[in-house]
Amino acid sequence: MAKEILKDEILKDEQLEQVAGGSWSESVGDFCNAYKRKLPGFDKIDPYTNEGVAYLLQNWTEGDNAVGQLKTMFAQHGIEMTYNGKPFDPNTYTYKGKSITQDEAWKIIDGK
Q1: At what angle do helices 66-75 and 23-36 cross, to 10 degrees?
Q2: Three-state DSSP class for 99?
Q3: I need a labelling partner for 82 at 20 to 30 A (CA). Which of 5, 22, 49, 63 fits?
Q4: Are 22 and 87 in contact (CB under 8 A)?
Q5: How far apart are CA 30 and CA 91, in angstroms?
């Protein structure tokens, strides 16, 4: 018999992000955020489709492809994003010499 999930056992998005953290998931999240904002270079690759997922899986390198696109996009806003490449190690984001969070990086991009 399946266990019933109680309302207080359901994780919020913020909690899920922390559980699922790491370079891959953070970078996919960044890619999704860039797509939602229709940032140049990300506006035509929908990571929510099979084609978008296939693109990410086939082009996940730091060069000119998916990770490289993210690094370039962040750099255009004065943010250095370091992709750590390990499943459970988070990326690092630096702005004006100060370490910032992923959320803070997106606030800078959004002009908040």
Answers
A1: 60
A2: strand
A3: 49
A4: yes
A5: 11
pLDDT digits (tens, 9 = 90+) for 80-100: 999 887 767 889 999 999 999
Residues 15, 17, 18: CA angle, nearest 5 degrees: 65
Query: Cα dihedral sign for 83, 89, 93, 99?
Result: negative
Phi, psi of 21, rounded to the nearest 5 degrees: -55, -170
Tokens in use for 97? Answer: 């010499």
Full-model pTM:
0.74
| CB within 8 Å of 92: residues ≥ 6 apart | 81, 82, 84, 99
On the question of pLDDT at 62 being above 70, the answer is no
Distances from the Cα of 55 to the Cαs of 3, 30, 31, 76, 102, in angstroms? 37, 15, 12, 23, 23
